[in-house]
Amino acid sequence: MNSRRKTKSPGNPDLSPGSTSRRGFLQSLTATGLVCASGTAAAHPALLAGATLPTGSEGGILSLDELAGDWMRMRALGINPALNNFWGALQVTDNLLAVTELTFPPFSQGMHSGYLRINGEELKADESRWYAYQILRRGRTKDLEVESSVRMVFENRGVLFRLKLRNLQSSAQQVEVSADLNGFIGRYDSDWAFRFPRPHDPNDFAAALAADGTALLIRHTKSPARVAFAFRQKPDQLESVWTHGRAAWRITVNPGQERTIDFVLAVGNGDDEPLFQARMWAEEFKPAFAAAKAQWEKRYAQVFMPGNNFYSGNLPVLTTPDQAMRRVYYMGIVSRLQLLRTNLPVQPRVIVTGGPQFAVTVTYFWDNTLLLMSMLDPEVMKQQLKRWLTLDISKWYAQDCLSGEGRGRWYSANNLSVFGLLQGYLRVTGDYGLLDEKAGDKTVLEHMKGLVTGWKQLVSKTGQLADYGEARNLLECDSTYIHAVASLNAANVGMMRMLASLLAWRGDAPGAAELRESARSLAAAVLKLYVPVEGVWLAAQPNGQFLKVRHVYDFITVIKWMAEDLSPEMRREMVSFVQRELITEWWMRALSLEDPAAPGSDRPDHGPMGAYDEWPALTLEAFCKLGYRKEALDAFYHFERVTHEGPYAQAHEVLGTHYSDLVRIAGRGAMTTHTMIGTVFSELIVGSFFGFQPDWQGKQMLVEPCLPPTFEGKLIGLPYRGKLYDLTAGAGGVTLKAR
Question: Most exposed: 91, 286, 445, 589, by fewest CB within 10 Å?
Fold first, then answer.
């Protein structure tokens, strides 16, 4: 087996029996009932007698500490790390204490929370390290080593700051530690979209000390928003300075000694609410700080617990000695959990698309086509689907989860995205009664028929292909990927065929035949767009011209929905194109550097200098579907490297034009640090590597797996149509057994 799969990340903590990191994770699992107090995995009542859910040291669930990123040089980052607490999010800066982009909708921050100074000099962080529940930053002077940790109060509007100072000298030091205290946060009850409202003028804020002088309150003069700061160690100096505040501590640090300063920020309505919360959290800082981790661990552990009291389903546990496979699987799940919100009014649990810089209340239709979410929370997914079917998705690309209204403009992939969710939900749950339920004035089945045939309204009078408009409706940054593209027309073929098989199974032979005939005709038109030898596709233009495009979206979408129509030569040429022009050593390019549009399409998610984090996983899924297992696995084990910076993001960028150039999370081009799409890597492992792809009838559940020949592992407790299954991979392939 490739040695890369066996090598432990140098930044990962010790999780051997008895280690501090392992004890913390086991304690959180014990609270959920997953693990016994002795530290061994417990048999949950919902499982069969004797069943266990193994943890990281046993080749199973990786703890949040095991999934932490490595220490990263901050000057080398494309975007600073971010943090989430299921109510909101923030991003850190290169100052050891400052945070920015703090949102707890309907509250949002402008600017930053304030700088740290040591003996009057601002101290910047040299390095940072991401964890799901905290961000660590560290820096040093010639005399001091300083490390900060920022955590968010679990499911509440609070931020916890801890600062540690260690004396590097052989004699005691007198140190003044000061912190600016900015509370530039307003409340906005409307206008939340991709770009959300936030304050811009510091003069709209006024700072004042609390009556007893032990806390600081900052008022937004244009809304009821207030920010309070309170302190575990009383500052030697605390003052208000017009729009903000300042706290200072004068401390003695002996040789080799470590001193700690803790304080909190609370956000709320009016003066009393945030002051009360801030003081409470400051007085009980240690338990609040510990709970920020423990409750995050519990929320994560519940993902894998059948019959848990939070999600309406669960996800399977992956057990394997293949460390890279496990890291990618669990990191994909954690990446999506970061965007879970429990405080938005449209439904009890929602997954927002991104954050913390943009889209913190909106859910895009495009980013949701995942089988795993049908396993984890089918009840919520069903609610979401029925709600979306009542929206006019020909007008919007997303729904705002504060107002329930549509946001943005029409995206060409809307029909495909919503249909993808529906078919995934139905195939996993078997809830075919949903087809006859009403969503608005139509049944769900009527909506599905509209989704798969809606393309006919986009066909010009002289053509056969649907015209999907300009770049703003497609990939936004690619000026030639416009109008009648191969990808979405191929998806129309596949969707019609898929729905036809459902209709035939339900006894509607005429309806199935009509869809299959439309699919046959459209497939022939799509195949005419292929460019032999080069392995790429044309985009037909309204003026009769054809533009050659070299984008990964054609590759992944045509293969997903029309693979059976491709000749062996076409398959080989398409894979060769991707390997030759898109795949790099550690990641991939969405658009070939050889595409004529490349010089003007430099956005990290869809352009030539990086890729939207969904594209690499879907590319490997396509490799597997075509039988290119070695190519898929070689790339997969190299792509694992990106998880050592942190979770999956909107995009990773390639830092150059060469095959071996380094890769990092992208910030330029209005990228968000976190997005929900990382789970597509987890689904790659379940659906393609293990081959779990059930049909409508439930007769076929597995397809040919795409695992390494020597791979050994299990998916334990996979939920499917009311039962739990174990998938076991070994020399004989993959076997499936009901529990």
Answer: 286
Look up the domain containing 45 and give its range. Answer: 3-66
631 vs 26 pLDDT, higher one = 631
- Across the range 481-486, mean pLDDT stands at 95
Instruction: At 539, list the tokens.
Output: 């985009």
The chain-wide mean pLDDT, for the chain, equals 91
Contact 166, 256 (CB under 8 A): yes
Residue type, 425: Y
Q: 175 near 119, Cβ under 8 Å?
A: yes
Q: What is the DSSP letter of 579?
A: I
φ, ψ of residue 119 to 5 degrees: the values are 50, 40
Confidence of residue 462 (pLDDT cuts 50, 70, 90): low
User: Is 76 found in the same domain as 61?
Assistant: no
Angle at 420 between CA 433 and CA 447, to 5 degrees: 50
Overall domain count for the chain: 3
Burial 137-163 (b: 16+ CB within 10 A, else e): bbbeeeebebbbbbbbbbbbbbbbbbb
Residue 50 CB neighbour total at 10 angstroms: 6
For residue 509, CA distances in Å to 102, 408, 453, 501, 515 come to 55, 39, 17, 9, 10
C-beta of residue 738 within 8 angstroms of C-beta of residue 728: no
pLDDT score recorded for residue 477: 85
Residues 171 and 252 in one domain: yes
| Tens-digit pLDDT profile for residues 606-652 | 999 999 999 999 999 999 999 999 999 999 999 999 999 999 999 99
Say whether pLDDT at 696 is over 90.
Answer: yes
Amino acid at position 495, single letter: M
pLDDT at 17 over 80: no
- DSSP one-letter code for 732: T
> Based on the domain organization, do 164 and 270 belong to the same domain?
yes
Query: Coil, helix or strand for 319?
Result: strand
H, E, C per residue of 385-445: HHHHHCCCCCCCCEEECCCCCEECCCCCCHHHHHHHHHHHHHHHHCCHHHHHCEECCEEHH
88 and 56 in a common domain: no
CB within 8 Å of 247: residues ≥ 6 apart: 178, 179, 181, 216, 229, 231, 235, 237, 238, 263
In-domain check, residue 557 = yes
Residue 533 lies in a domain: yes
From 402, 356, 455, 477, select the one nearest 109 (Cα to Cα): 356
Nearest of 271, 202, 268, 272 to residue 241 by alpha carbon: 202
Q: Is the pLDDT of residue 59 over 50?
A: yes
- For 488-525, how does the pLDDT look when each residue is reduced to its tens digit (9 = 90+)? 999 999 999 999 999 999 999 999 999 999 999 999 99
Q: What is the pLDDT of residues 562-585, one digit of tens each?
A: 999 999 999 999 999 999 999 999
Asked whether 483 and 412 are in contact (CB, 8 A), the reply is no
Residue found under tokens 């309406």: 312
> Token digits for 543?
């003026």
Q: How far is CA 542 from CA 465, 488, 539, 549, in A?
A: 11, 16, 10, 16
> Do 37 and 158 sit in the same domain of this protein?
no
In the chain, what's the furthest Cα-to-Cα distance?
89
Using DSSP's 3-state secondary structure scheme, residue 551 falls into: strand
Please check whether residues 177 and 259 belong to one and the same domain: yes
Pairing state of beta strands 127-130 and 225-231? unpaired
What CA dihedral angle connects 497, 498, 499 and 503, to 10 degrees?
90
In a domain, 703, yes or no: no
Mean per-residue pLDDT, 88-110? 96
The per-residue pLDDT for 339 is: 96
